[in-house]
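Action item from last meeting closed. Structure (287 res):
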C-alpha cells in the first residue's frame, strides 16, 4: 500500500509540472494562437537562471522564484517582438516551426556549454525533511510544489476569466480592431501575454530544479507529454489544461503501480482516445 501512495505522490508532483507548463501553453495558444514549441526550452532556462543566481550571485531559491520567471519572461518578450509578431495572421504551422527551431537553438547552446549531465540544485533549508503521515512519508518540498502549483494555476485562471484585464485580453484576440477603438494598445498586450506564458514555464523550471536537477534537455523530455495534456484538455482551455495536467499525472502514477510497462505511453493512448471521441479536447469548443 505504501508503494501505491508513493506512486500517487509522484504522479501528483509530475501533474503539478504538467499543469503549470500546459497552463502557459494554453494561455499563449488561447490568447495569441501560437503553438509555442519552445516552451520546454524556456522551462529549462528558468531552472538554469535559478542555478546561475545561486552559483554566481548567491541568490537563493526564494528570490529565484521571482527573478527567474521575470528574466525568462523578458527574454520571451524579446522573442515575440523580434520574431513571432511577424507571423500574425499566418497559419499556426508557421509559429510551430519557428518555435521548434528556437527550441533546438536554445537547447543546443546550453548543451554545448554545460553538456548533458545534471547540475545539482539544493532544496532550501525551510523545505527540507518530511512528514510521517502514518501510511507514507511525505517530503515537505514535494508537498510545497503541489500546493504552490495549485495556487498559481487558480490565480492565473482567475486573472484571465474573472478580471477586467482578462476580459480586455480575450476581446483583443477576437476583435482587435474594436478593442483598439477603446484606446487599448493591442500589440503591447499580446507581447506581455506571451511574456507571461513564458514566465509560467520558467517558474515550473525553478520548482523542478531541486527535484530533477538542472539539465539542458530537461524541457525536451517533458514537452511532448505537455502537448498531449493540452490536446486532451482542449487547446486554449485554461482550466481544462490545469485539471487534465493534474489528472494525467495521477493516472501515470497509478499506471506505474499497476502496469509499469504502460506508464510511458498511457498519456498518448488517452490522447488518441479523446481525439477519436471529441477532437476539440475534453473542455475545448468547436470553432
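Sequence:
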Amino acid at each position: 500500500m505504501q508503494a501505491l501512495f508513493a506512486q500517487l505522490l509522484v504522479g501528483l508532483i509530475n501533474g503539478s509540472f504538467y499543469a503549470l507548463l500546459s497552463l502557459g501553453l494554453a494561455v499563449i495558444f488561447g490568447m495569441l494562437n501560437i503553438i509555442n514549441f519552445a516552451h520546454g526550452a524556456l522551462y529549462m532556462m528558468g531552472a538554469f537562471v535559478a542555478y546561475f543566481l545561486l552559483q554566481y550571485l548567491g541568490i537563493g531559491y526564494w528570490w529565484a522564484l521571482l527573478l527567474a520567471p521575470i528574466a525568462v519572461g523578458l527574454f520571451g518578450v524579446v522573442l515575440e517582438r523580434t520574431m513571432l509578431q511577424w507571423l500574425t495572421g499566418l497559419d499556426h504551422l508557421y509559429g510551430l516551426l519557428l518555435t521548434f527551431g528556437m527550441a533546438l537553438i536554445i537547447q543546443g547552446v546550453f548543451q554545448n556549454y554545460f553538456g548533458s549531465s545534471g547540475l545539482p540544485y539544493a532544496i532550501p533549508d525551510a523545505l527540507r525533511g518530511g512528514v510521517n503521515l502514518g501510511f507514507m512519508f511525505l517530503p515537505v518540498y514535494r508537498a510545497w510544489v503541489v500546493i504552490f502549483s495549485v495556487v498559481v494555476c487558480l490565480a492565473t485562471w482567475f486573472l484571465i476569466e474573472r478580471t477586467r484585464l482578462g476580459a480586455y485580453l480575450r476581446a483583443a484576440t477576437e476583435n482587435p480592431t474594436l478593442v483598439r477603438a477603446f484606446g487599448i494598445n493591442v500589440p503591447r498586450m499580446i507581447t506581455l501575454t506571451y511574456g507571461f506564458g513564458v514566465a509560467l514555464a520558467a517558474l515550473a523550471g525553478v520548482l523542478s530544479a531541486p527535484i530533477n536537477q538542472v539539465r539542458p534537455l530537461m524541457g525536451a523530455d517533458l514537452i511532448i507529454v505537455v502537448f498531449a495534456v493540452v490536446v486532451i484538455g482542449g487547446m486554449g482551455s485554461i482550466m481544462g489544461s490545469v485539471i487534465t495536467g493534474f489528472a494525467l499525472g495521477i493516472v501515470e502514477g497509478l499506471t506505474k503501480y499497476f502496469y509499469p510497462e504502460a506508464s510511458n505511453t498511457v498519456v498518448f493512448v488517452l490522447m488518441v482516445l479523446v481525439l477519436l471521441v471529441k477532437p476539440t479536447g475534453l473542455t475545448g469548443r468547436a470553432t
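Note appended to the action item: The mean pLDDT is 88.
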